[in-house]
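Morning, I've got a small favour to ask if you have a moment. I owe you a coffee for this, so here goes:
>
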Amino acid sequence: MRSFNGHSGLARRTFLGGLATGGVGMAAAQAAPPQPLAARLPDAMTRPGGADLPYGLPAPQEAQVERTLSTTAGFPVWRTPLQHQRGIITPSGLHFAVHHNGVPDIAPERHTLKVHGLVHKPLRFDLERLLRYPLVSRVHFLECAGNSAANALSPTALDQTLGEIAGEVSCSEWTGVPLAYLLNEAGVKDSAQWVVAEGADGGSHSRSLPLKALLEHGMVALYQNGERLRPSQGYPMRLFMPGWEGNVNVKWLHRLEVTDAPAYTKDESGLYTQVLADGRIERFAFHMEVKSVITHPSGQQRLPEPHGFCEIAGLAWSGRGRIARVDVSLDGGRTWAAAQLHGPVLDRAFTRFTLPWQWNGRKADLMSRATDEHGRTQPLRSEWKRRYAMHSFNHYNAVQAWRVQADGRVENVYA
């Protein structure tokens, strides 16, 4: 007989004793009166369930899965709880939102989109007319230029959840009218180079975008995840430019002015202009760079056991194309292993990655580093900081590190 702890006799006696005890227990169970069927079933199986709702809601037991709110530069920021996300689609109710001037209450039947400026035929579209055009659907992420600003600016790593640190990014299916349809119908003039997009909010938020890029990728989005846009996402229509910083995706879109030069609006000349370490200005840096985060285990989570198997899981994305690979380090960047990418691997969308890990119960520093199809790779925090001025924070895409303590608690650290 195989030995347990080197004592085969003890193991055999323990095993036989367990059988004997089990036999007595079985005899006692047979002697007891049988239980009613209802007593042997879960409570939910003993009575009819409740009524459903006209508009479905999450289970009440999941009420803690919600966005977090903070105020940045005087306006509210709602962050996606990425630590709870497992697929690549963010539920509409958890999609991040930044409101510079609040959420306007717009009557859709009175809202119109005007296309004017350097065009041969100025046009005005109401919703009914827009919905006559062929619609396209695309899955893309949307990320605020200031996502992860705390990691860029704070001299010490803040003990926060992933959502609090990097939750100004989400991924949805967007459905709408390609902007090329509308601009081609209006007929842009030869001198046209830019388009100024303006929203119908209290601050008339506006951004300048290159005409060529809008013709190739721009969309007037009307639907998100199969339903009409929600007010915080620009109802009844918004501009959508896949892979570009969130601020140019103008919500509550009501005007597109075709011009021969950028307008240098207050936002693109102030908050959304980057300063390099040598003092030079980096204007119109539209694309969000390649980035990844480990969603589990992540900040303020705790591994349930002192050691054992744990699947490291995360999300990666790039504003310039598809994710080609994600490498994961368990030792603070000294060694790396390729993670598995889970399909679909889409253009400018979240890509889910995993790596199996047998945790030995000792402290470990976990990191993920994404590379896109064009060979762009996430920098370390020290590398990113060397490129930009100390007060810069937009387009921060440095490697995110998590420290798993010996007791299983996970904390944000700088690698």
